[in-house]
């Protein structure tokens, strides 16, 4: 009986102990929320933005506007893995990667497609890093990017870097890009990969009289088949937004001049790209249907006139973006991807002859149909 009691006591002790052997206190871990990738003098350079979630957890005692401290770690090495191990050497705490929300790559890093592939290979092999991570390029210093605070001194995870969807829902220009999307674009024949470019705006905001910097998306970097193609500004890309079906809300002036007659908001575009082969040459037609509503009316114009003016503005923007992309040998409108889908044999034939298959005559027709749904609380003349 005594032996049986002793066995029960020992078993109970072991059961209670095994539940704690691998436990870790969440407040004593370094949570990486963003990763920066750079390359200089033959070495990879990795930056990490680290937060202690006890500082940003939402509770009744949370003080709105309280400054949230940011920690930035740096590692160097001849491989990406070596840079991470370099960070471990000085981190003091166990580093956890499961909360990474964004990866930012410098222009210098993006200029070599092989480096980009190697970095993606390492990050995607590591099980803690997820596929739904936002990817950006930048011309800024990575330290400046990771030191940037959000408005009202909210947590950095409430900034454009980690949460761009809120801004995109009010002003849709360049769609946020996630890791799984970039991987598909890199591996897809006939398609160029686009990385939104994040920058720091230094003139738009002040806190009282003190200037405060804020994030903004100022353009996008492009690459294809491991080759860096270049960068285009947001203004140069304004025609590309109309082919994004996730576009939530994007305003235009009609006509697009210094003295417009109205400002209208475009929503819910539906587009089709139709390649046609004539005399051995490929021509493309873009058909676009898009809804709209009036945001501001400067002059009293009819709904039909506003629709006609909006159609012309959108067509002009699409053609302008195409022409700029053409000068940089970037297929901004992803016309080649549609050719690959519809006529793969023709795509392979052209691909054997030249790397870039577009010219000034390739974009044939741009057919835009605008449906003005309403004019707000004020009515406009129908005709």
Automatic annotation (TrEMBL):
It is a lipid-anchor. The keyword Transit peptide does not apply. Its main location: membrane. It comes from the Bacteria. This is Ger(X)C family spore germination protein. The keyword Flavoprotein does not apply. Residues 224-376 form the Spore germination GerAC-like C-terminal domain. Keywords: Germination, Lipoprotein, Membrane, Palmitate, Signal. Belongs to the GerABKC lipoprotein family. Gene3D superfamilies: Nutrient germinant receptor protein C, domain 3. Coiled coil: none annotated. PANTHER family: SPORE GERMINATION PROTEIN B3 (PTHR35789). InterPro entries: GerAC_N, Spore_GerAC-like, Spore_GerAC-like_C, Spore_GerAC_C_sf. It is found in: Membrane. Residues 22-199 form the Spore germination protein N-terminal domain.
